[in-house]
Amino acid sequence: MNTKFRVIILLAGLMLFPEVSGAGIIKAAEFDLVTGYRQDRVQWSIAGNSAGTNPNILSELTWDDLRIFQIQQRGLVELGRKNNALLTPQLVWLVSYGQIYSGKNQDSDYGGDNRTLEWSRSNNSANRGSVLDLSAGIGLKIAPAESSFSLAPRIGLSLHQQNLRMSNGNQTLSDQTIADAVYGPGVVTLPATGPFAGLDSRYDAEWKGGWLGLELQQKIGTRLTLVGELQYHQVIYTADANWNLRTDLAHPVSFHHDGDGDGLVYELGGDISLGERWRLTLRGNYQQWVINSGRDTIYFANGTKSQTRLQEVSWRSYAFMVGVGWRF
Question: Which of 8, 92, 176, 240 would suit a FRET pair with 301, their CA atoms being 20 to 30 Å apart?
Fold first, then answer.
């Protein structure tokens, strides 16, 4: 996380602290439990050296159409404040877990810049793994008296994990001529095209950092409330991988990735009142994250290591969820 963003969070926290510290009691609390469908796409690439060249894309991995069953718990606590109905301090949190049940993976290697001279490609299964999301924050709900509209600026911290797997290997491209031209004859020996046994590799990624957000609510009639939220995140990215079929690499950590980046989270939804305390809640969520550059540290079986450039990591996700909420 860069210094500028740390300063923003610090200043925002100092501005909010008097509101939170001045709160006397818990004014209200909300708990939501939702579940539904989520789909993710994760892609990363590395260069041939630490300068980002030779070639600029040496290897690229993509996990696509990751279909996930997700369950999520959300909470909100409003703190009462005497003689001030306009501003209400809030504490919010989110805990989410998902199980990957379907997906595909592609692993490609190139000998030329800009994804040219592809000499190896495998297309594999990615139907195992999991995702985890944790987030917590504080904010101020701003709701003018007698108004059906409110907004809540917030700050917080979050952690997002993806535990990705590769199995059921299938080599779909093997060009030994290009491999020999790039690395020299006999340095790289490619497998024949077709299925290959024993693939059980993993890639475990973690995105953590701070965020600034804004939630808007609009009541329509007596039963329906529309909700929209936008969050901007700055994150530190780390990942460990175990390439189980590579005998030249160390295990259980074959290489490590680290870098800095940012992300945007958009959410739209609605709450339908089912009575004084219960409600039906619907949510749609879209996330877009990117790490622009970083380091790829490779650990070899003989105890040595080397570094090259992590060119980019991108993660896109969308989800549709439904559940119930309770307010007291």
Answer: 176
- What would the pLDDT profile of 37-58 be if each residue is shown by its tens digit? 999 999 999 999 999 999 999 9
Q: How many helices (H) and strands (E) does the chain have?
A: 2, 13
> Is 264 part of a structural domain of the chain?
yes
Q: Quick one: which H or E segment has residue 288?
A: strand 278-299
How much is the pTM?
0.89
Query: Does the residue 209 lie in any domain?
Result: yes
Q: Please choose, from the candidates 235, 227, 238, the residue with its C-alpha nearest in 3D space to the C-alpha of residue 288.
A: 235
Check residue 205 and give its pLDDT: 98
Query: For 187-212, how does the pLDDT look when each residue is reduced to its tens digit (9 = 90+)?
Result: 889 999 999 999 999 999 999 999 99
When divided into structural domains, the chain yields a total of 1
Inter-residue contact 273 to 30 (CB < 8 Å): no
Residue whose structure tokens are 């290489």: 255
Q: For the CA atoms of 193, 300, 166, 209, what is the dihedral angle to 10 degrees?
A: -140
**Could you give the C-alpha distances from 246 to 115, 151, 300, 324, in angstroms and in order?**
23, 53, 10, 47
Tell me the average pLDDT of the chain: 92
Token output for 232: 């901007």
Q: In percent, how much of the chain has pLDDT > 70?
A: 91
**Distance between CA atoms of 139 and 233, rounded to whole angstroms?**
16
Q: How far apart are CA 136 and CA 151, in angstroms?
A: 18
Amino acid 247: pLDDT = 94
Confidence of residue 24 (pLDDT cuts 50, 70, 90): low
Q: Measured over all CA atoms, what is the biggest interatomic distance in the chain, rounded to whole angstroms?
A: 81
CA–CA separation, 167 and 126 (whole Å): 6
Per-residue pLDDT, 19: 46
Q: How far is CA 188 from the centre of its chain?
A: 34
Instruction: Quote the domain boundaries for residue 86.
Output: 3-59+66-103+123-169+201-327
Q: How many Å apart are CA 246 and CA 202, to the nearest integer?
A: 12
| CATH (domain of 301) | 2.40.128.90
Residue 176 lies in a domain: no
Is position 253 within any domain?
Answer: yes
